[in-house]
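Side project, low priority. Logging it here so it doesn't get lost.
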Amino acid sequence: MTHYTCPVCHRQHEDLPHIGSDRPVHFWDVAEEERERRIKLTSDTCEIDEKYFFIRGVIEIPVFDYPQGFGFGVWVSHKEENYRAYLERPDSADIGPFFGWLCTRISYYDRDTELLKTMAHYRGAGLRPSIVLEPCEHPLAIDQQNGISLGKALEIVHFYSDRQTEKSAS
């Protein structure tokens, strides 16, 4: 286990936590009173109206001078046939990669992350798919390609944890 002093909060931490979204952004477009009828949601998949299909994966970002990467748990869209292939063999590395649109807003970035082009690479072994962004000028894609400092990774973690603390306090 790695210990470090956080440059944001100045406390001692073990390991670098990852950030994740438990629903694709499209979930929120369905009226609350209709969700139970129209949405099938698990921790790894989501179907809306038996027409829109999403899988959960991880955008992994290398962290300089740190033994592990940093991850964003995200949702990406899939064509129905690719989604069904995943449902039939959820623990297989022998499917894909499949194209999809990023369906998660990562609000740390000033530019919207929704609908960035992705490829979902299936890994098997109980791991969620690795989501690779198509190279572009979006800061998230650049971070995935080039890596980030541990300080920036911690800044991102605190961006989200501080927002949770503010919500809890209100």
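Brief comment: The longest helix spans residues 150-169.
Revisit when time allows.
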